[in-house]
Amino acid sequence: MVSLLVATTIDPASINPANALLALPGWLPGPHFQDDMKSFVNQGLRILLHGKSIVVEDNLDERWEKVTGEVVDEVIFLSKHTAASNKPALTVHPIGVPHLREGDVPPQGGKPGWAALPNPRIGPWIRLLKNIAQAHNLLPEFEITLEATHHGPLTNKPTMFLEIGSTEDYWKRQDAAQVMAQLVWEGLGLGGGTDVGNWSRANGKKKVLLGIGGGHYVPRHMDVILKDDVWAGHLLSGYSVPMEDPKGETNVEIGGTWKQSIKAAYEATKSAFPGGEILAHLDQKSFKGWQKNAITGFLAEQNIKIGKPNNFY
């Protein structure tokens, strides 16, 4: 079983952390994958470099398995992050566009109605990232944050994005690149320690947060996930649970793709955490009364339990 880390040479926030990682000991040239890509191997990690947009190369994990015969356990992407605020940030997030309708064209990869398996390391790694960034004196200049589930590319194995934001000056920051490289190095146990966020070793703490509601940086869900031992699945912000206002009518079907989105995110999270207890955590203040009633009713119909913050500790 190997971990596949993907970076693109056209993005400094992607290639700089990859190069910082490749500067550490133990790397060897990897197998030939395809003519426009390079690969490198170190213990159980495979780095794959290409020169395209990070979100356009679909099914790299499946294709790697077919070419090399190696079984991919997880996929990690390095990328830049953009935000209207232009604030410096280091982010981690799952991927997918489960709210899009069939026929919609995803603006940044993926396919409508799809949610990737969330990488179980997301929760443990956001906590590790905060500690590493603190040790490198990037706090409080950089915000350390989760992002909601969004964009592609298509993958088949547990996946997460690690991003540096939010402008070109920060994308090129070598200290931020070093922090992301150290996150991968320590998080995968390449330096000789135990890897971080290995679900198969989870003892006792089997509750997994499925976030529903809130803004793109999911602060209410973040508050819970920053506590020790909390596992994180998909994080659906408000824009990923679109609901059509019934305009005061009662006993009507609430339109929109919100049910599809929640169900896809739940099923993917459940698959990524075998044996886990998936609990929906709602950002209560982000919903109007009719929205909360509809969502809680649907969760009950789907036998998806709702968890309050204390239920995860």
UniProtKB/TrEMBL annotation:
Annotated Gene3D superfamilies: AF0625-like
Keywords: Hydrolase, Metal-binding, Zinc
InterPro entries: Deacylase_DtdA_archaea, DtdA
Matches recorded under SUPFAM superfamilies: AF0625-like
GO molecular function, one term: D-aminoacyl-tRNA deacylase activity
GO biological process: D-amino acid catabolic process
Keyword Ligase recorded: no
Presence of the UniProt keyword Hydrolase in the record: yes
Matches recorded under Pfam families: tRNA_deacylase
PANTHER family named in the record: D-AMINOACYL-TRNA DEACYLASE (PTHR34667:SF1)
Protein's name in the database: D-aminoacyl-tRNA deacylase
Species annotation: Vicia faba
